[in-house]
Design a protein that fits this description.
This protein is an alpha+beta fold. It contains 11 helices and 15 strands. The longest helix has 20 residues. The radius of gyration is 22 Å and the shape is globular.
Length: about 425
């Protein structure tokens, strides 16, 4: 990723190739209809339902004066959930016009059964790429956070905590660029795309990163579909690429300012899962889904820049921020995702989970400064520690809180390339 004084560009190459729903079969409409005596199959890459039946309903028009609003929230384990309501079209333009809603928190482990109502408060509106319209109106996705009926944030409401970290920091203009890696599996949830069932690829890591060709890239159509859906929704998705392990992909969101980075990343994850639902492919954000063999894990590298870092002499501000992060290394590791100890081993482009380090252009360090930032003396830094399943609200809020502290942390010597 590059971040100059004016703009972040997340540094990962273009998209990847060669996985699509099978079009090889073309049975008659009557033969495609569901047999009531059969169980729907888990068939990767093919819709389990008759597309002719689906299209019959998708072709129906929406009433002009009404919209569908998909309320999305984060559950007790960090996954997204959603449900739909009908609203007057006039309410779709502003969060302030959207009503609060509620759900059964006992079914998401966010409330007890004898007092199960959880309140959803709308925080951010996106266009709905799954219900497009042609009449000039938009159905919407609504990013919400969760509260008790008394108005207190739930313990699982990490957005509310992050919002406090950003409160009063508007003049700092904190920019975040988040690099989301993910791994695609067949529906057996054991076999990554492109892997033989019960076995390993015949070739080691190397040819799969930013690759082309059916022998190298597995999941391009899924990533491309997610990319377009995010752009349609209004998410600041800035790029996609195939990753180092076969079946692994990445996209980047940003630059986003403050709390909006968490909102956009969470909604992009929702869109990713919806796209995988359509393709009948299992997607995991686990940081080390394959522990046997020499395979990279998955992270959510977090690129950070404040106004002072982007101004002349900003490299000094960057280093001060890095020293503060180093002084609180274990605090950050504790909230940077589940299973991260399997990934941060000091191998496969990671630093050891036990030690903090930084370096220029060094992907074996905890924090990396880009060559362009070093050359220009201003820009951004990349925290490479967050795992792919890390909560973006927690990560961005924690980084903001730490780098904003008015303390002088001990200087840290940069990691030499030979030590990486």
């Amino acid at each position: 990723m590059k971040l100059s004084a004016a703009l972040i560009v997340l540094a990962s190459a273009g998209a990847a190739s060669a996985f699509a729903p099978s079009r090889a079969f073309a049975p008659s409409r009557s033969s495609m209809a569901l047999n009531a005596e059969e169980i729907l199959s888990k068939q990767t890459g093919q819709s389990a339902l008759d597309p002719a039946v689906i299209s019959r309903y998708e072709s129906l028009t929406f009433p002009e004066e009404k919209i569908l609003a998909e309320y999305v929230w984060v559950d007790a384990v960090g996954n997204t959930r959603s449900k739909t309501r009908t609203l007057a079209a006039s309410k779709a333009s502003s969060v302030a016009d959207l009503p609060s809603w509620n759900f059964d928190g006992s079914s998401t482990d966010q409330a007890p059964g004898d007092d199960s109502e959880v309140i959803l408060k709308p925080q951010r509106i996106f266009r709905d790429p799954f219900r497009p319209r042609t009449d000039g109106a938009d159905n919407i996705l609504v990013m919400c956070d969760t509260y008790t009926p008394a108005g207190e944030p739930l313990p699982t409401n990490t957005r509310a905590v992050a919002a406090k970290a950003f409160e009063g920091r508007e003049d700092d203009e904190p920019w975040f660029g988040l690099e989301q890696e993910f791994t695609l599996f067949n529906l057996d949830e054991k076999t990554p795309l492109g892997w033989p069932k019960g076995g390993m690829p015949s070739r080691p890591q190397g040819p799969y990163y930013c690759s082309v060709g059916p022998e190298n890239n597995f999941g391009r159509h899924i990533t491309e579909a997610m990319y377009k859906a995010c752009l349609y929704a209004g998410i600041e998705i800035s790029g996609v690429n195939g990753e180092v392990m076969p079946g692994q992909q990445e996209y980047q969101v940003g630059p986003c300012v403050g709390i909006d980075a968490g909102d956009q990343m969470m909604m992009s994850r929702y869109i990713l899962q919806r796209v995988c639902e359509d393709f009948q492919v299992y997607c995991t954000l686990h940081p080390k889904p394959i522990v046997e063999g020499d395979w990279n894990g998955a992270g959510m590298h977090t690129n950070v820049s404040t106004k002072k870092m982007r101004e002349e002499g900003g490299i000094d501000e960057i280093k001060k921020a890095i020293y503060r992060l180093g002084a609180k290394h274990q605090e950050h590791i504790a909230v940077y995702g589940e299973g991260n100890e399997l990934r941060l081993t000091g191998k496969f482009e990671t630093a050891s989970i036990d030690d903090f380090s930084y370096g220029v252009a060094n992907r074996g360090a905890s924090v990396r400064i880009g060559r362009d930032t070093e050359a220009e003396g201003k820009g951004y830094f990349e925290d490479r520690r967050p795992s792919s399943n890390a909560d973006p609200y927690v990560v961005t809020g924690k980084i903001m809180a730490t780098i904003s502290e008015d303390v002088d942390a001990p200087e840290i010597a940069p990691l030499d390339k030979a030590e990486a």
